[in-house]
């Protein structure tokens, strides 16, 4: 007997060790084969209790065949004198079978009468604690249905390296909480705001963009209001770099002139934007990276007022009209608030791409993410300082996601800038008046 117990204990230890090793060395397959089935069974088996605890049940009158009161789940008083009687029962929302995802599972729930997806969002944290998981996100694909997407562990604690970005103006800069790639696609969302406290990962995201865009046929322009310390190392791949407000103002004048020129080219060709032009006529797209945006708007004394007004108007014009003419903005800053002046508020309205890294105050999150779901603002404030690069991203589908950028060191971005320096069009070539040339050519002919 004792020997048999010993053998059983030994076998259990071996199995447990093997499972632990499997989990350690190949977590995804372990999750699909062992973790997910156990989780699915547990979730289905405990759904009534969990829904009841999280306030997602409704009371209904039902006729129950009662012989043993414990057999029915009721919060009402059950008398066992009659076999059939009307009792109050807690009805749970109908739940489908949970389906596995890379980092957890997803399950569709039918809402009960009177329930809205907001009720499930409000209970998301309670659900996460009841199931012992990292987070529960709620979405509603159609009325009456709610999808609960569960992530078991925070998938953003450790992420891989920056993959290549072969599509023009589209860079995979990180990973979303869902496990999907986090893409910044300037052709879909032309202008972006990237906010966050100091050391939250803003410049890292700009580095990721530089590495992704460097091999592509695009002109990169840097506005580095930190005196040039951030972008100067990437100068070989930058067609133009401005490091002070005066230089920015001049460069913005060039951009506005460039826009007017492209506008004329498109009008002459009967095109609405540069993408409708023939391939050989299409001008090179320009991506403008701005670091420390607030510096463009800060006024030390009144003498700067005119320069600020000039810069602010030009930047706003680029934001308003740039998309059609292949000029895209990526603005980084610690605070992008209305206290900086009306120019910044108008600019914010033009930037539909929003990235909010860790912030210290709720105002910055609100200013960056606008009137997204309040849960997004809470999430932005809850980003821990130990995970720089984690951000809340307003997605192209109108939803918000937690995401983390791939770590891209300054050295990596510098190497990419040097390696692809031969692709850098000179600023003179980018801004050369194409319409003027055509007209001149015609005259010569
Ligand atoms: N995705 C990431 N993964 C790992 N480390 C990161 C990530 N993003 C940033 N970091 C690290 O966090 C630190 C701060 O990043 P970064 O310089 O991008 O912050 P910042 O928001 O630009 O700060 P500042 O406002 O001071 O310029 C850097 O040391 C960087 O290496
Ligand atoms: Mg920075």
UniProtKB/TrEMBL annotation:
What SUPFAM superfamilies has UniProt attached to this entry? P-loop containing nucleoside triphosphate hydrolases
**Pfam name, any one:** FtsK_SpoIIIE
Q: Does the keyword ATP-binding apply?
A: yes
InterPro entries (alphabetical)? FtsK/SpoIIIE/SftA, FtsK_dom, P-loop_NTPase
PROSITE patterns, alphabetized = FTSK
Top-level taxon of origin: Bacteria
The residues that hold ATP are: 196-203
Which keywords describe this protein according to UniProt? ATP-binding, Nucleotide-binding
Keyword Phosphoprotein among UniProt keywords: no
Q: Which residues form the FtsK domain?
A: 179-366
PANTHER family named in the record: DNA TRANSLOCASE FTSK (PTHR22683:SF41), SPORULATION PROTEIN RELATED (PTHR22683)
- UniProt name for this protein: FtsK/SpoIIIE domain-containing protein
User: From which organism does this entry originate?
Assistant: Streptosporangium longisporum
């Amino acid at each position: 007997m004792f020997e048999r117990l010993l053998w059983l204990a030994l076998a259990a230890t071996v199995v447990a060790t093997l499972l632990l090793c499997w989990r350690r060395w190949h977590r995804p397959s372990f999750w699909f084969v062992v973790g997910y089935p156990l989780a699915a069974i547990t979730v289905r088996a405990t759904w009534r209790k969990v829904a009841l605890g999280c306030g997602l049940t409704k009371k209904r009158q039902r006729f129950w065949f009662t012989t043993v009161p414990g057999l029915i789940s009721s919060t009402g008083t059950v008398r066992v004198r009659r076999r059939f009687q009307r009792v109050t029962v807690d009805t749970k929302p109908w739940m489908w079978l949970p389906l596995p995802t890379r980092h957890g599972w997803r399950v569709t729930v039918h809402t009960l009468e009177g329930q809205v997806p907001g009720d499930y969002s409000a209970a998301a944290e309670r659900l996460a604690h009841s199931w012992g998981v990292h987070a529960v996100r709620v979405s509603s694909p159609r009325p009456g249905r709610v999808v609960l997407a569960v992530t078991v562990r925070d998938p953003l604690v450790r992420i891989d390296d920056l993959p290549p970005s072969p599509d023009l103006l589209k860079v995979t800069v990180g990973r979303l909480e869902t496990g999907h790639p986090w893409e910044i696609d300037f052709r879909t969302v032309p202008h972006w705001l990237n906010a966050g406290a100091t050391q939250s990962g803003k410049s890292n995201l700009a580095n990721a963009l530089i590495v992704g865009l460097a091999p592509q046929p695009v002109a990169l322009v840097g506005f580095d209001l930190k005196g040039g310390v951030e972008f100067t190392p990437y100068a070989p791949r930058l067609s133009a770099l401005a490091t002070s407000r005066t230089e920015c103002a001049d460069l913005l004048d060039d951009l506005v002139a460039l826009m007017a020129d492209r506008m004329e080219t498109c009008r002459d060709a009967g095109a609405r934007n540069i993408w409708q032009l023939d391939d050989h006529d299409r001008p090179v797209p320009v991506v403008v990276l701005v670091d420390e945006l607030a510096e463009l708007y800060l006024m030390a004394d009144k003498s700067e007022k005119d320069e600020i007004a000039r810069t602010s108007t030009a930047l706003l014009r680029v934001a308003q009209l740039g998309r059609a003419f292949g000029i895209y903005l990526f603005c980084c800053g610690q605070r992008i608030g209305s206290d900086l002046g009306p120019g910044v508020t108008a600019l914010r309205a033009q930037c539909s791409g929003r990235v909010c890294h860790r912030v210290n105050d709720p105002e910055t999150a609100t200013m960056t993410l606008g009137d997204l779901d309040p849960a997004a603002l809470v999430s932005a404030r809850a980003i821990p300082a130990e995970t720089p690069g984690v951000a809340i991203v307003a997605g192209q589908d109108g939803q918000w996601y937690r995401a983390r950028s791939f770590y891209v060191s300054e050295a990596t971005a510098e190497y990419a800038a040097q390696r692809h320096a031969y692709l850098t069009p000179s600023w003179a070539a980018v801004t050369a008046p194409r319409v003027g040339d055509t007209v001149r050519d015609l005259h010569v002919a």
